[in-house]
Amino acid sequence: xxxxPVNLGARSYExxxxxxxxxxxxxxxxxxxQRAAVVTQESVxxxxxxxxxxxxxxxxxxxxxxxxxxxEDLCRGFARWGLTRADVVVAVGGGVVTDTAxxxxxxxxxxxxxVHVATTLLAQVDAAIGGKTGVNLPEGKNLxxxxxxxxxxxxxxxxxxxxxxxxxxxxxxxxAKYSFLGAQGLEDLPLDERVARCVEIKAAVVAGDERESGxxxxxxxxxxxxxxxxxxxxxxxRHGEAVAIGLVFAARLAQRLGRxxxxxxxxxxxxxxxxxxPSRLPAGADHxxxxxxxxxxxxxxxxxTFVLDGPGGVEVVSDVPRADVEAALAAMxxxxxxxxx
Length: 341
Description:
This protein is of the alpha/beta class. The protein folds into two domains: 207 residues, Rossmann fold (3-Layer(aba) Sandwich), CATH 3.40.50; 116 residues, Dehydroquinate synthase-like, alpha domain (Up-down Bundle), CATH 1.20.1090.10. The protein has eleven helices and eleven strands. It has a seven-stranded mixed sheet with strand order 1-2-9-6-5-3-4. Helix 8 packs antiparallel against helix 9. It is globular and about 60 Å long. It starts with a strand and ends with a helix.
């Protein structure tokens, strides 16, 4: 079992990575906990035993379940059961579950402890780590939420063998992101070590910028376009697939701004292709709608804002000219059309 610390002073905790990590649940529960509200989805199919009295609360399926309505349903269920601050919420599932259950835990009684049992690759390398919880609005992804650190995260790599191929590929999109945040050579490591290396990078960033006032925003590399594609809908993209497209777009945009050269763009395309992920804009994507949605991104404090590669590495770049964004989208669309002809 690989143990990765997330150093946040009084809010510090460990991420346990390895086959069978879910069976360590009892030992990571807060001392004195009497009951556990286990939040999951029927499709997850991963049973856990908290070792204390517990009740299962099922969420609906799909990204649509990541909503304020679900948070209300969960909190009302907790209240009817009599959950208290001395108890714990256990989120078992992928990013939709950990984000939503984490937000419900943060809001209920103004905060009850939460443990994440991450069952997808995407959740293990990214979504379940770092304390960012939240849900979507029709106007955009993750626009309502809270920072609420878990007391522990269990990343059981054993359960990844049961994931559908596209769900596993979605996690590879987030893993590809880490290749540009300091995790070179990931593809050469065994799975447990690959997951742990991604967690180490995220833990270090979170420890230095818990509330996303600076460096932590770099963890959103590739996500500005990805979130816009997901919100726009109609493209049949999983989150990690959208992130992969977003990584290539960010590289193209950075090249237009003179921040990187063509060789670095090609490196982005090579990494994405190496994971078998899409790198082209979906056919028929509405550029105006995508730009409108990107302008609403939570990083956008000063005009169109992106996380972009550059001479000093990946960083947040504000007030990006709209003309350059339009040109980068147009160039990607040309590639899409060329490949389909």
